UniProtKB/TrEMBL annotation:
<feature type="region of interest" description="Disordered">
    <location>
        <begin position="216"/>
        <end position="270"/>
    </location>
</feature>
<feature type="domain" description="KH type-2">
    <location>
        <begin position="23"/>
        <end position="94"/>
    </location>
</feature>
<dbReference type="GO" id="GO:2001235">
    <property type="term" value="P:positive regulation of apoptotic signaling pathway"/>
</dbReference>
<dbReference type="InterPro" id="IPR057258">
    <property type="entry name" value="Ribosomal_uS3"/>
</dbReference>
<dbReference type="GO" id="GO:0003735">
    <property type="term" value="F:structural constituent of ribosome"/>
</dbReference>
<dbReference type="Pfam" id="PF00189">
    <property type="entry name" value="Ribosomal_S3_C"/>
</dbReference>
<feature type="compositionally biased region" description="Low complexity">
    <location>
        <begin position="237"/>
        <end position="270"/>
    </location>
</feature>
<dbReference type="GO" id="GO:0022627">
    <property type="term" value="C:cytosolic small ribosomal subunit"/>
</dbReference>
<keyword id="KW-0687">Ribonucleoprotein</keyword>
<dbReference type="InterPro" id="IPR018280">
    <property type="entry name" value="Ribosomal_uS3_CS"/>
</dbReference>
<dbReference type="InterPro" id="IPR004044">
    <property type="entry name" value="KH_dom_type_2"/>
</dbReference>
<dbReference type="InterPro" id="IPR036419">
    <property type="entry name" value="Ribosomal_S3_C_sf"/>
</dbReference>
<dbReference type="GO" id="GO:0003723">
    <property type="term" value="F:RNA binding"/>
</dbReference>
<dbReference type="GO" id="GO:0005634">
    <property type="term" value="C:nucleus"/>
</dbReference>
<keyword id="KW-0694">RNA-binding</keyword>
<protein>
    <recommendedName>
        <fullName>40S ribosomal protein S3</fullName>
    </recommendedName>
</protein>
<dbReference type="InterPro" id="IPR001351">
    <property type="entry name" value="Ribosomal_uS3_C"/>
</dbReference>
Length: 270
């Protein structure tokens, strides 16, 4: 992963996918008790940054940053990175109830502690819905009671199963619990809420979401009334001249003697 040789885009995508999958598997085993819920890889020209998302960031960092340095050293040796070319960060999960991986791990530890399946699942389901999720689905399969294996499904709220919005709105996690009677499988699906600010949910709305714009509030007319339009009419006489103003115009004295009343072709002024 650390080599910069010219390779095709196909091999580059495969290499990045294998790198992400191996890191995710390593952190899942190593940081399971610390609420590990995913990672993000940022590649810059100077270095590669790996952001570990967990519910207990202080446990990931360790005392005085000792544990995060140990993880950095292991990854650096495994993938052949140069010194100081890779760095790990820990980021706290915004809402633990909306993280499928964190809730699957929580349910796993409850079952390992001997809590009944139905009680443990209903507790996790209630916590997820109280955190603001649109819907949740929990499936526990295996030898729940007796020697016959079966599956129990717990559903609440809304859940979509097909279409492109599943990639944005639905979080999915699978965990396994090794008990005395056998292995139990845990599947947790959480449908995230729509949040335009993208704080706890998804910024992009669902395709079938219709927003109705409310009309503006108008004053109710209780009694009939009339409006005067005189102000608009009075503007025109001042521009073109009013007939009364034309009659009040004075005739210069030198022109009064030249005009003869009643003569053809002359104007009569009153």
């Amino acid at each position: 992963m650390a080599t910069t040789a010219n390779i095709s885009k196909k091999r580059k995508f495969i290499r990045e996918g294998v790198f992400h999958a191996e890191l995710n598997e390593f952190f899942t085993r190593e940081l399971a008790e610390d609420g590990y819920s995913g990672l993000e890889i940022r590649v810059t020209p100077q270095r590669t940054e790996i952001i570990i998302m967990a519910t207990k960031t202080q446990a990931v960092l360790g005392e005085k940053g000792r544990r995060i340095r140990e993880l950095t050293s292991v990854i650096q040796k495994r993938f052949g990175y140069a010194e100081n070319s890779i760095e790990l960060f820990a980021q706290k999960v915004v809402s633990r109830g909306l993280c499928a991986i964190a809730q699957a791990e929580s349910l796993r530890y409850k079952l390992m502690g001997g809590l009944p399946v139905r009680r443990a699942c209903y507790g996790v389901l209630r916590f997820i819905m109280d955190s603001g999720a649109q819907g949740c689905e929990i499936v526990v399969s295996g030898k729940l009671r007796g020697q016959r294996a079966k599956a129990m499904k717990f559903i609440d709220g809304l859940m979509i199963h097909s279409g492109d919005p599943v990639n944005d709105y639905v979080q999915f996690a699978v965990r396994h619990v090794l008990l005395r009677q056998g292995v139990l499988g845990i599947k947790v699906k959480i449908m995230l809420p729509h949040d335009p600010k993208e704080g706890k949910g998804v910024k992009k709305p669902l395709p079938d979401h219709i927003q109705i714009v409310q009309p503006k509030d108008e004053t109710a007319i209780t009694q009939p009334y009339s409006e005067s339009k005189d102000k608009k009419i009075e503007q025109f006489p001042a521009q073109i001249g009013h007939p009364q103003q034309m009659q009040q115009q004075q005739i210069p004295p030198q022109q009064q003697g030249q005009l003869q009343p009643g003569a053809p072709g002359n104007l009569v002024f009153q």
